[in-house]
Amino acid sequence: MTISDPTMDVVYKAMQGLAARQRATADNIANVETPGYKATKVDFESSLRQAITIGDPNQAQPAVTKSTEPNGPNENNVNIDDETVSEIDTNLKYQTMVEAMNAKFRLLRTAIGN
Amino acid sequence: MTIFGAINTAGSGLGVYRTWMDAVSDNIANMNDAVPGDQPAFQERFVEAAAKGDATGVGNGVEVKGITYGPTTGRLAFDPTNPSADAQGYVKYPDIDLGEQMTQMMAAQRAYQANLATIDRAKDAYQQALELGK
After folding, report:
1. Which of A11, A34, B76, B80 is the most exposed place for a label (fewest CB within 10 A)?
2. How far is A52 from chain B (nearest CA, A)?
3. Do B122 and A20 touch (CB under 8 A)?
4. Number of H helices, E strands in chain A
5. Min Cα separation B99/chain A (Å)
6. Residue B130 has pLDDT above 80, yes or no
């Protein structure tokens, strides 16, 4: 019996993935006018889903890829609308995960007797 | 990657677009500099940006790679009454297009604002993370 359970591991892994995506989005927006820059995309969901299926969430590894969207005038393919939406979406998901983690912590605290 | 990575990344964007706005305002401020016709005109400033960090992983933002200068040719104008005129009565103005400069200024300004918004949202997320366990 350990303090952390698989659910907490999944939530933790999701938070890590979302944080990576947030950094990638920030990087894309910082390079919105850089000639030749290709947008970075982070996908952690598919790897996490697979890891949950085999029963070890800690094996999940976020995949970082370069976007293959068509280029703009200066060989740059950052889409500022997509990035802004991704930023807000990631942020809300992150907050949801924090809330989920806190719910687990509250359960634990109840069990401990405080 | 530092703890508050997203904030630093967007911060690098702020720096680059601020430099770009500085360069554009310098170009506009000097667009009417008159020099004698046989001397080099004011050179337009171009800011070169480059992505920071490796090409495979999540990068670390953007940086100013360097400043390049436009041609010294400028455009000649015949204006013998101008105090800067040369012996033949010619003065030289920099070849800077105000419309182009204003467009660049707007692009730089919008990109600056986008990075500021990123910092704001990243800050929200980090603040949320600090609420863990409370």
Report:
1. B80
2. 23
3. no
4. 3, 2
5. 19
6. yes
pLDDT of residue B127: 87
**What does the pLDDT look like over B73-126, one tens digit per residue?**
889 999 999 998 999 999 999 999 999 999 999 999 999 999 999 999 888 888
Taking only the tens place, the pLDDT of each residue in A87-108 is 999 999 999 999 999 999 998 8
How far apart CA B50 and CA B57 sit, in angstroms, is 16
Nearest to A23 by CA among B50, B63, B12, B132: B12
Distance from CA of B23 to the nearest CA of A (A): 15
Decide if pLDDT at A1 tops 60. no
Q: Where are the beta strands (DSSP E) in chain A?
A: 40-43, 63-66
Residue pair A76/A88 in contact (Cβ under 8 Å)? The answer is no
Residue B45 β-bridge partners: B69
Chain B contact for A9, CB < 8 A? no
Look at B9 and A95 and tell me if their CB atoms are within 8 Å. no
| Ordered DSSP codes for B22-79 | HHHHHHHHTTT--EETTSPPPPPEEEEEEE-S-SSS----EEEEEEEE--S--EEEE-
Tell me how far apart the alpha carbons of residues A32 and B62 are, in angstroms, rounded to a whole number: 9
- Minimum mean pLDDT range among A72-76, A77-81, B26-30: A72-76
The verdict on B53 touching A (C-beta cutoff 8 Å) is yes
Interface of B with A in 90-109 (CB under 8 A): 107-108
Closest CA to B5 of A108, A22, A83, A98: A22
Question: Residue B2's pLDDT is what?
Answer: 53
